[in-house]
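TICKET #2291
ISSUE: user wants both folds in one file
ATTACHMENT 1:
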Amino acid sequence: MFPPESHEPMLAIRSYASSRMPTAAVLSIGDELVLGQITDRNGGWLSEELLKLGLMVNERRTVADDRVAIAAALKELAARAALVVVTGGLGPTDDDLSREALADALGVELEEDGRALQHLLDLYQRRGRPMPAMNRKQALRPKCAQCLDNPHGTAPGIAARLGGSEVFLLPGPPNEMRPMFHDFVSPAVLGITAQAGGLQIATASVHSCGLPESAAAELIRPFMERGSNPLVGTTASGAVVSARIRAMGAAAMDGALERTVQEVERAWAPYAFGRDGLTLPAALGETLRRENAMLAVAESCSGGGVGAFITSVAGSSRWFAGGFITYSNELKRDLCGVPQAMLADHGAVSEEVARALARSAAERCNCRFGLSITGVAGPDGGSIEKPVGLVWVGLCDRDAGHGASTTKARPFQLLGDRETVRERIARVGLQWVRLTALGFGDVPLLWERPSQSARA
């Protein structure tokens, strides 16, 4: 942290006499956020981190690169929250206006911080080039504020007290914002919560795949009643439905959170695949490693999406052999041995071809499991018989018990654009492999439609 050159005392943490627990607010700055050109990932990350530290975020707001609008938002949020964290608008260009807006909200002028300027000069010197004149703007701060060291970029953060609220301006790039949050905001939060009585907050999440959100919510409805502690809520992202569980006060420390997590897992069995940061591909990997089983894939409409999901997991080579991207019928025939007559009679999007691809992936890669995906991702290419969003998923299990080998295929009808269909079916396919390895391969799955054949 760069102390003010006037050598004013460092920021003092406000003392809260109110019996009500203090709250936080998050303000994200940028035209590109307001216009939807990029997604605000900083806001969600900050909310989660603040909650871990025991401070609830009661409001998240997004404002364009407008000096007047940013200043007004700062005043409004600071009037209601003990802490306001702002991201974005600290760059060197004319549309980076967060520092100016904070000065307006404080009713003071900007001044140059000598230590922050020296940091910038040293940074460019290490890069072997002179500092552009416009970057000097990044050494400005409101007179009563402090600059915060940013070892990962050119934009120092800024800390100030606006009324009774602690305000932190942090840069927008996550690789700069996150370390600065831990270095400067976290200690302030701990001070705020300690002086407010230190209400304990604990959170957990349980993830599932294959259940509709409404059905998943119905199974845990008693835990979702407002006023419950722990309180459970559900969110859906793609094919994954998650239970977000929050315990406060005594419930955060007496085991109630863990008991609720276990109840949700039991209610969602066998669809629940993990807690907190565990992803579906990682959960599948844990299952296949326990079974000493390998997986191979043959992908058509998913175009390698299943393999990309799998290989995002470190160590996936221990359970994933690889596979084939057979987008054309010619490659389905030449690489995976799908008979030309089968392709001609049934088409690539069919139960027969899905089964043949899955069996070929398992046999040619010498794996226990072979997974195939072939369908119509859209936006065109559909027909009355095979509409856009129809995907056949095939699964071969060469060790299905008693030395038997089985190959099955299931049709799914998905809604959404091309990328949505591809992403969702990839996750559903991974979950089907996981469930099969656990002995639950026949449970119904989200978006599945009745098949005209039940052949094994």
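ATTACHMENT 2:
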Amino acid sequence: MNSPEIMEALQALAAEKGMTTEVLLEAVANGLESAYKRREGAAEQAYVIIDESFNITVYAQEVDELGNVLREWDDTPHDLGRIVAQTVRQVLNQRIREVERDMKYDEYAGREGDIVTGIIQQNDARYTLLDLGRVEALLPQSEQVPYERPEPNSRLKAYIVEVRKTAKGPQIVVSRTHPGLIRELFKLEVPEISDGVVEMKACAREPGHRTKIAVWSNDPNIDPVGACVGARGSRVRQVVNELRGEKIDIVPFSDDLHDFVAKALSPARVREVRFHSDNGVAEVIVPDHQLSLAIGREGQNARLAARLTGWRIDIKSETQIAEEEAGYGGEDWAEGEWVTDSETGEQTWVPADGSEAITAGQWSEAATEQADVEPSAADPPNGAPAAAPEEASDAASEAAPAAVVPAEALTDPSTLRSDPATS
């Protein structure tokens, strides 16, 4: 059968779909082979050959029990034209869909850790669909920033955490909460990071609220913090805008742990850092007026600093340290709790052993008068009203998991996985 028009049509179709003519010819041959074997009296073993002029020949074979070919002959049906007309369209459409799915998967396979830009197509309580052009990306609810609700048809950048191969094509799972998104956004805005001159050593993030990153320069002539901030804050501003106003603290990384922990608590000023390696606690001493700033709102600053450095951080004011060193506070105080009057706001220490309660003011007076006296078992722990912010700092530090997010983890999608089926 000589059909040059069909061959030209196949060549045009292959060029349009971005595949080779051989792939389409193979699909047609397989379809014709299946159609031939369904005919009455057809040989059990057969194969189809299609040459460059679209001449089609069906060869039947006789084989023995071991699979050896005993005889082969031309068994091309006389009504092959009708069979071709019925088969080609169905087989080609199916094969083209399969090849396109494979090509789409190959395009994104291995791209975990990259950043993509998509247009929001669908947004509901379970997931958001992003149109990436040839494919769609799935942004599960668990990977979305709380309270972030981008408008439909708006553009959004996201971080690829997984590429799955399914029967319907590749499924690309993206994230807006992964720490790696921060690194890739800075990589787009800061040439020094993309060139490898400046490295992002660690990142701690509370999506939608605040992020701390530690940067390091391989060139002593380049300031890593200044490179990330840019002229008048232009570079970091672009990242903040993409994150819908999320605050970003950029601190210099240091091999000196004392300096690194102190810088991690920025913008607060730190007087001293004491490390307790036995329990992994870094005791940080700050001026009295810097205590609330070091702890941060709801302990956020201390929490992020702990994640960034990998140390549990216990923040204390200079007054608290002075009282402890003078003999007040410590582990030998009686157990109890501070009770705050809802109307007056006055704090009262209520010992657990049933001893007489004492107000914060009374305790301060007693502490002043008995500065040279060893504290008794009935005295309240950690001293007077200053215990409230100290407890907040301890709580903020203990609530934060002491896990460092190193630079290599920022590109490791396994650090954050989600299953859209369960989202």
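RESOLUTION: both attachments delivered.
EXTRA DETAIL ON ATTACHMENT 2: Residues 328-333, 370-405, 413-423 have pLDDT under 50 and may be disordered.
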